Amino acid sequence: MVWGAHHGCLLVIERAGLTRVLDRAPAPVARLYALLAVMAGWVWFRARDFDHALTFFASLAGFHGWADVSVSTHIVLHPATLAAMVVGIVLATIHMDMARAFRLALGRAARPAYALADTVAVAAFLGLSVLSIAAGSYSPFLYFRF
Predict the structure, then answer these.
(1) Dihedral sign of CA atoms 68, 71, 76, 77 in order
(2) What is the DSSP letter of 14?
(3) Considering the chain, what is the average pLDDT of its residues?
(4) Roughly what angle, to the nearest 10 degrees, separates helices 27-46 and 2-13?
(5) Cα(21)–Cα(37) distance, rounded to whole angstroms?
(6) Are 91 and 122 spatial neighbours (Cβ–Cβ below 8 Å)?
(7) Residue among 137, 138, 145 at smallest CA distance from 47
(8) Please, what sign has the CA dihedral across residues 99, 104, 110, 111?
(9) pLDDT tens digit string along 137-146?
């Protein structure tokens, strides 16, 4: 219910004029807004109640500092994880037209090469994600609590 209110408020704000502002803003700003709006919505699914959600938002904003960071959080803050987060942030906010770059560089041969490289990259990331999840600690199914 709270997520629905969150989503509805964002729709109202966007239709009241934020869409025009985002259309004039640079593309990374619009993408960052979308990323933050979606990620804030996920908090409502993770939190068990409203107070827990507020605690999550306060932690995400850095109000709780580093003193109460759990062992599992320290494990997640491994340099490889932080590097993957930086790559994810760059890929989520910056528009890179790799297909156009391949077309300019390789002409007609670029499309099959791009498709193959894209497929291999997605398969590799899927495999690495599955391995990372399998190696991690137990994580219960999120919707089981509902």
Answers:
(1) positive
(2) I
(3) 81
(4) 160
(5) 16
(6) no
(7) 145
(8) positive
(9) 666 666 665 5
Output the pLDDT for position 66: 65
Q: Give the chain's length.
A: 146
Which pair of structure tokens corresponds to residue 33?
């807004």
Convert the pLDDT of each residue in 43-84 to its tens digit: 888 888 888 888 888 887 777 766 666 777 777 777 888 888
Taking the C-alpha atoms of residue 48 and residue 137, their distance in angstroms, rounded to an integer, is: 20
CB atoms within 10 A of CB 2: 14
Using alpha carbons only, what angle is made at residue 134 by residues 52 and 83, rounded to the nearest 5 degrees?
Answer: 70
Burial of 78 (0-12, 13-18, 19+ CB in 10 A): exposed
CA-closest candidate to residue 88, choices 50, 43, 25, 39: 39
